[in-house]
Amino acid sequence: MAKVVFSGIQPSGNLHIGNYLGAVRHWAKGQDDGLNIFCVVDMHAITVEQDPKVLRENTLSTAAFLLAAGIDQEKSILFVQSMNADHANGGWIANCNISMGQMSRMTQFKDKSEGKQFVNVGLFDYPALMAADIILYSTTHVPIGDDQKQHVELARDVAERFNSRYGETFLLPEPVVGETGARIMSLVDPEKKMSKSDPNTSASVFLFDEPDVVRKKIMSAVTDSGAEVKASPEKPGITNLLSIHSEFAETSMEDSERQMQGLSYGDFKSKVADIVVEKLKPIQEKYAQIRGDDNKLLETLRGGAKKAQEISHKKLTEVYDKIGFVS
Fold first, then answer.
1. 40-77 exposure pattern, b = at least 16 Cβ within 10 A, e = fewer
2. Are 177 and 152 in contact (CB under 8 A)?
3. Active site residue 112
4. Is 184 annotated as ligand-binding?
5. Starting at the edge strand that comes first in sequence, how are the strands of the sheet with 174-177 ordered?
6. How many other CB atoms are found less than 10 A from the CB of residue 246?
7. Both 116 and 156 in a single domain?
8. Angstrom distance (rounded) from CA 283 to CA 253
9. Segment 55-108, tens digit of pLDDT
10. Is position 261 annotated in a ligand binding site?
């Protein structure tokens, strides 16, 4: 069985180093292992209200970042979800193979809908679209965080139910949890995960921050009243900075700790800032180059969508035939 890996990413203008170190860098490194499909999931994005101009910009920005970070269209498939109508059509098929009880147990809906006056059906129902995203490509592996495991399990349930009703059609995807980089924490509150939605912009190093901004944020990062640069549960701020250094330097935490031994907190932070600035520079330069010609970027994404649809439409045609649709 050929290995097929499907990874989705929400369009965002606020991607940060946690997104890069935790997922995207590993996606880029894994492109020689099977077929890798990367999708900017703009249809998922509209489950909450979006400004059309901002959504378009965030979609292009996210796609350009993936290319700048090493996603290679010669090895992999990169496309925008709305460019392939098979996802919406497959989402309806998934809907018809999910019970109300199953959908009601999706925990992320409760979290995302809390406190909102208007909650659209899409926010409740998007796990069905996510299931279609995955199973239309005969996906074997889905790299995810812990909070997404329930959605991959739902995709498996959809595949099993359809197979039981209509005969073997879909593969059962395996969630791949934990094969990612370190969990990067907030620079302001190192007990919390770094987040693009944090209202305090000093809490995150964004991928497009200028070098002086990166340095200022890291030099201002919360540490503690001690003096020893050492990773420990009692020193979450220092541990987080060591984690950032070790991830960018591609060394172990122990190696980073040894390199920083005897340094003051100020000198330690300066070393961390140096490597972050150094490693972000080529990504930022490549990103600027790609965004210099959005028409070419769109052409690249349309080419990716065409390749994606060659796979998904073959599967959807099989599905329609088994259901009894006239085509």
1. bbbbbbbbeeeeeeebeebbbbbbbbbbbbbbebeebb
2. no
3. yes
4. yes
5. 77-80, 35-40, 4-9, 141-144, 174-177
6. 23
7. yes
8. 24
9. 999 999 999 999 999 999 999 999 999 999 999 999 999 999 999 999 988 877
10. no
Is there a binding annotation on residue 138? no
> Catalytic residue among 3, 53, 116, 193, which?
193
Q: Does 262 map to a domain?
A: yes
Q: Which domain holds residue 275?
A: 211-288
Active-site option among 149, 196, 279, 307:
196
Tokens for 113, please give them.
Answer: 């809908």
Q: Give the residue-averaged pLDDT of 264-275.
A: 98
**Known catalytic residue: 196?**
yes
Q: Can you tell me the mean pLDDT for 175-185?
A: 75
Q: Which two tokens stand for residue 146?
A: 């812990």
Answer for the pair 285, 59: CB distance below 8 angstroms, yes or no.
no
Active-site hit among 29, 53, 110, 112: 112
Whether residue 146 is annotated as binding a ligand: the answer is yes
Which two tokens mark 327? 């085509």
- Whether residues 13 and 146 fall in one domain: yes
* C-beta separation of 104 from 127 below 8 A: no
- Tell me: do 278 and 305 sit in the same domain: no
Query: Dihedral (C-alpha) 204, 210, 212, 214: value to the nearest 10 degrees?
Result: 20
Residue 70 falls inside a structural domain: yes
Does the annotation flag 19 for ligand binding? yes
Is 260 annotated in some ligand binding site?
no
Is 122 labelled a binding residue? no
The residue among 166, 142, 145, 143 whose CA lies nearest residue 155 is 142
What is the predicted pLDDT for the residue at 181? 58
Residues 56 and 139 grouped into a single domain = yes
Q: What is the CATH number of the domain that holds 69?
A: 3.40.50.620
Q: Assess whether 77 and 134 both reside in one domain.
A: yes
Could you give the C-alpha distances from 80 to 26, 138, 299, in angstroms and in order?
Answer: 20, 18, 11
